[in-house]
Queue: 2 jobs
Job 1
Amino acid sequence: MGCNTSSEAKSKKEEKDSQENKANAAAVTVDLLRKYLKIVEDKLFPEEKQKESAEQGGPSEEAAATKIQAVFRGHKTRKSISMKAVEKPAEKSQQEPSKAELEAEFRADDKDLCNAATKIQASFRGHQARKQTHVEKTKEEQDKEDVENIDLTDPELNKAATKIQASFRGHKVRKDTN
């Protein structure tokens, strides 16, 4: 019996290890089944999950509704913008009315229309005149500043002035002698 004890001990140890392995496998299987069951419950009964999350301080139904509304409004806006982009080329394809069509629409004997056109023209011409006057004043002010900034002590300036005076006097003499 002494020889068989080692094999009996090995077989008992193997039995014990296999039982532990079976218990571990069973525990892992139970954990996997619980996880799978939770996933299935979440898919089949989302309302209960929302109630649980609301009770636990998770997102409320109001927050979920707000999120859904925001997403839908964004979708609606993007869709309307894309529809406007499609409509614009159609508008461009319409030609402007011809001169004959405009004349048929606006008669020359319509006094109110003529007065309105005259008023628009007068307003625009006044605007143009004020704009032109402002440009001229700005230019005059700039010229005045430029003249004031001239350095009268510059020797080059004296040479240039002398040259201009000599040229003009020569021109005047030639003009008078003919």
Note: The two ends are 159 Å apart (CA to CA).
Job 2
Amino acid sequence: MAAVVLPETEIQQTYFQSPLTLIRDEFDGGKNNWVDTFKEIITKFVKDLDYRPEEPITEDNPTYRALRSEFLMKYDNGNEFYDQMYRTAVTMAELSYRDHAPEIRLEIARFTCFLLHVDDLGKSFNTLEGLQKRILMGDNSDGEFLQAFRKNLIGFYDLYDPIPANSITLAAISCISGMLLEQNDAVRGMKLSESSKSWPNYLRSKTGCSESYAYMLFPKSLGLEMTTYISVMEDIVFITNAANDILSFYKEFLGGETDTYIFLRARITNKPLVETLQLVVKETLEANDRVTKTLQSTDAYGLWKQYVNGYLGLHFTVGVRYRLNELEL
């Protein structure tokens, strides 16, 4: 039998106790302030990525107006969740894909809204387990939402070449399985051994839909050959996931979430949380260097730089979702 990283009782006392206690225990007698440590890590991270502050998306933004109008008429039940969803989805599309055509940015914003809706309001469907099957079979028993989501996925075939379009749609379908894995009590409580080191990466690859967003960088209208970027696609996907994990860690930490990527890696490798966070930062910067080196002499370079800057900007400008404004960065 593979050895468990920590005995079950010790895991309960360590990696499932209060995150605040976990961080404080990593410092010398609590003398150092964990908030200052977060600020230092994040500040250096975005500086190393040459981040230039982005302006928040306003309500007079055309994509915001179009998306909000569409969802208000069809799906919005007045829950304040929707206001945050619109802001997040439009900010992702407008900042990360600034040089794309307006119709592409709107389609990306729709896509994000549909996934956020499924992720946060999945209980409103007949069953989340059967959602993929109903999408593929054209079953509209969940009402107009499924028709619109299916239309959105199919629409990417008009905007992207076949392989990127396939990857966008398949990653979206796969993401629903990731949501189910995250919610499964047996999976959440399973024992993890030293031989389970690939598990955090596998789960993360399922839940982030990052392959979709990576391929969205390269619509057919730009005329880029796939060989321009495909060799670093895995790095683009990793950066998309990892940057979110790094910049979401503060709010997840405060929310007491212990089943996130950083926590899982720390648990399996038996490393402190701060050390694990710093390691993910290092890996992300190394991946960014590889992508930059590959794309810097191509027409994709400007797209890549804006994607990274806009994606970081998403986390800083949507303050309610990520809470980075509390760190006064």
Note: The chain has a mean pLDDT of 84.
